[in-house]
Design goal:
The chain is an all-alpha fold. It has a domain of about 50 residues. Helices cover about 50% and strands about 0% of the residues. It contains two helices and no strands. Helix 1 crosses helix 2.
């Protein structure tokens, strides 16, 4: 693995930054403060370092996209 800090190995689109003081973009309203804190705690432990909020948002958005891809695949299979 060339870059161990990028486990997935893919460079995704940059997500808007999530400032703790400002509103989230509408596409990220589902990311609650509690979810962000839980993601930071879980994945910081996995990476062995403190992650930034932007990194946690990237992880959450990747999980969301993966889930959407699975649901879309399942819908196509049901047809």
């Amino acid at each position: 693995m060339e870059n161990p800090s990028n486990i997935a190995g893919f460079q995704g689109e940059l997500e808007p930054s999530v400032s703790p003081d400002g509103p989230r973009p509408l596409s990220m309203e589902w990311i609650s403060d509690d979810l962000l804190r839980a993601t930071l705690a879980a994945w910081s432990a996995r990476y062995g370092r403190s992650l930034s909020q932007d990194e946690a948002v990237e992880i959450l958005m990747n999980v969301k996209r993966f889930s959407e891809a699975l649901m879309n695949h399942e819908r196509r299979e049901d047809k």
